[in-house]
Specification:
Layout lengths: L6 H23 L7 E6 L9 H6 L3 E6 L3 E6 L3 E8 L2 E8 L3 E6 L4 E4 L9 H7 L26
Antiparallel strand pairs: 1-2, 1-6, 3-4, 4-5, 6-7
Length: about 160
């Protein structure tokens, strides 16, 4: 098979790096101005660590808000850990970057969306599908990162 440049994975890694940089800055200096984040992640990811009651309440995905109260934000190369307040109950959690589905900062109308990654078994299907920019039929799911249009977040 001919070697190709995997732009989807390169973009996915770049977007993760951007989020890592933003969260690292926030962990060191706090949230500037009106910035705040809505982060949605896959709670079924094997490296997600959340309280049992949160996993029961959010069995497939969860959106957290990093805004007014948070503690212990620690960012690594693979993800972040944070303590958030749920009804006056501080709950620590660990979220790997691979589990992220969306990252939105509505204060500046910025958002990223990560498409779910399919199993490696689907690589053969990818070769058959090819690249057709004009084909947006719903039966062909995206398998790589995708940047969301900022128009979605405009007021």
């Amino acid at each position: 098979m001919a070697r190709t440049i995997d732009y989807g994975n390169l973009m996915h890694n770049a977007m993760r790096g951007l989020i890592q940089s933003v969260l690292t800055d926030v962990s060191l200096h706090g949230l500037p101005g009106n910035h705040h984040f809505f982060i949605t992640f896959d709670t079924t990811h094997p490296d997600v660590i959340i309280a049992d009651w949160l996993r029961a309440r959010y069995p497939t995905e969860m959106t957290i808000v990093i805004q007014n109260w948070f503690e212990n934000l620690d960012v690594t190369d693979t993800g972040f850990s944070i303590t958030l307040n749920f009804g006056n109950n501080p709950e620590p959690m660990v979220v790997p970057f691979d589990a992220l589905r969306t990252f939105v900062d509505p204060s500046v109308e910025f958002g990223l969306r990560f498409e779910s990654q399919e199993d490696d078994d689907d690589e053969e299907d990818d070769e058959e599908e090819g690249l057709d920019e004009d084909d947006d039929t719903p039966e062909k799911p995206h398998r790589d990162a995708d940047v969301v249009s900022l128009d979605k977040f405009r007021k």
